[in-house]
Design goal:
Strand order of the largest sheet: 1-4-5-6-7-8-9
Order of helices and strands: HHHHEHEEHHEHHHEHEHEHEHHEH
CATH class: Alpha Beta
Number of helices: 16
Shape: globular
CATH architecture: Alpha-Beta Barrel
Helix content: 40-55%
Strand content: 5-15%
Bound molecules: coproporphyrinogen III
CATH topology: TIM Barrel
Number of domains: 1
Radius of gyration: 19 Å
Length: 343
């Protein structure tokens, strides 16, 4: 059965004439059917924690577009809530959390073995989606990478430069390291449970990896990813892992080898030709169309899509955007992108 799945083939290193495709945030506000289900749920977090509705929005883009992969509908910050942080989403403001700025704040978090009490509905969503998906569609589970989740837990919100997290790393390295350790352990448990529930691939989102430089990149982007992947592969032999150290630039080079990732996802700040030469040499890559084309459309959407397909055509490739599709995207542009990929 696995051989029918184009995503699994790409992750195994196979070169395919037509690359498999899915999109980050494919279940999202640009889709009217998503907005309707979200309204039914009441708010974003209720949607994440109501398995029937979370499964429904996971499946919506598969029904509409026939993507090769479905990604579990949840959020990278649920794990912070499961560890005892307060989490809320205020409209127009993005996520807000209670902050961690001291050893005392850290000590108030819950033990890692209690996260399933909060995250059980997420595993139920995975089970429902796994049963409902067409046989050729791959189910991707995910988590935030420890550094990225820590940046939100420390600052209590999204920050343009991750200043508060860098400040804690300098001022109180013991507390900072203890938080990263806790997140490594929790992420292994969380992804392991998603795999046990039916996720066939998992992806680690390190959205803020780009602000880690030099030794900090090695310690807080590479090493946690390597440890999480090693633990997952020990428990679930053969489970493919996609790593997304967003805006890592030169850090993309050798990232798969250094971490054991089966695929490196590339943002759109680097060119596909550069990534083919420097990253795809080590195996599968995912990416990297600029999400702005989903808003702009036009002939550039088609030519850029074709250019990326061509640039990666000599190696294993999963077509995706360089970051999530935005709420102002036109759903018809997604169809045009698929036409340009699949012909
Ligand atoms: O990709 C998917 O379709 C799967 C579901 C998914 C969501 N968030 C749903 C979501 C995934 C994989 C994520 C990952 C995520 N969440 C990341 C890493 C990827 C990235 O974008 O860099 C981060 C940093 C978060 C944290 C987060 N969640 C932010 C910053 C926001 C607000 C920004 C925004 O787009 O509004 C969210 C909310 C969120 N997560 C939405 C969705 C569909 C929009 C919420 C809504 O419906 O109102």
């Amino acid at each position: 059965m696995a051989e029918d799945k184009t995503i699994l083939r790409a992750l195994a290193g196979q070169v395919q004439a037509i690359p498999p495709v899915w999109m980050m945030r494919q279940a999202g506000r640009y889709l009217p059917e998503y907005r309707a289900t979200r309204a039914q749920a009441g708010d974003f977090l209720s949607l994440c924690y109501t398995p029937d509705l979370a499964a429904e929005v996971t499946l919506q883009p598969i029904r509409r577009y026939g993507f090769d992969a479905a990604i579990l509908f949840a959020d990278i910050l649920l794990i912070a809530q499961a560890l005892g942080a307060d989490l809320w989403f205020s409209t127009g403001e993005g996520p807000r959390l209670s902050t961690i700025t001291s050893a005392a704040d850290l000590a108030r978090l819950k033990p890692v073995d209690e996260i399933d009490a909060v995250l059980a509905p997420v595993y139920e969503t995975v089970r429902i989606v796994a049963r409902a998906l067409p046989r050729e569609t791959t189910l991707i589970g995910f988590a935030g990478a420890p550094w990225t989740v820590a940046t939100y837990m420390i600052a209590g919100r999204g920050t343009p430069d991750q200043g508060p997290a860098h400040a804690l790393m300098q001022a109180d390295p013991a507390t900072f390291d203890a938080l990263i350790e806790m997140l490594i352990t929790a992420t292994i448990e969380y992804l392991s449970a998603q795999i046990a529930a039916g996720a066939e691939v998992v992806k680690l989102f390190d959205s803020w990896a780009g602000s880690l430089k030099g030794d900090a990149f090695a310690r807080y982007a590479v090493a946690p990813t390597r440890r999480i992947i090693a633990a997952l592969k020990a428990r679930h032999p053969g489970i493919p892992v996609i790593a997304f150290p967003r805006e890592a630039e030169q850090g993309y080079i050798g990232f798969a080898k250094a971490t054991g990732a089966d695929c490196v996802a590339i943002d759109n700040s680097v060119s596909a030709d550069w990534a083919a030469a420097h990253v795809q040499v080590d195996g599968c890559v995912q990416g990297n169309l600029d999400p702005k084309y989903m808003v702009l459309g036009g002939p550039e959407l088609v030519s850029e899509t074709r250019r990326i397909v061509r640039a990666f055509s000599q190696g294993p490739h999963i077509f995706n955007l360089g970051h999530g599709i935005t709420p102002d995207a036109d759903p018809d542009n997604v169809q045009r992108m698929l036409g340009a990929i699949r012909g």
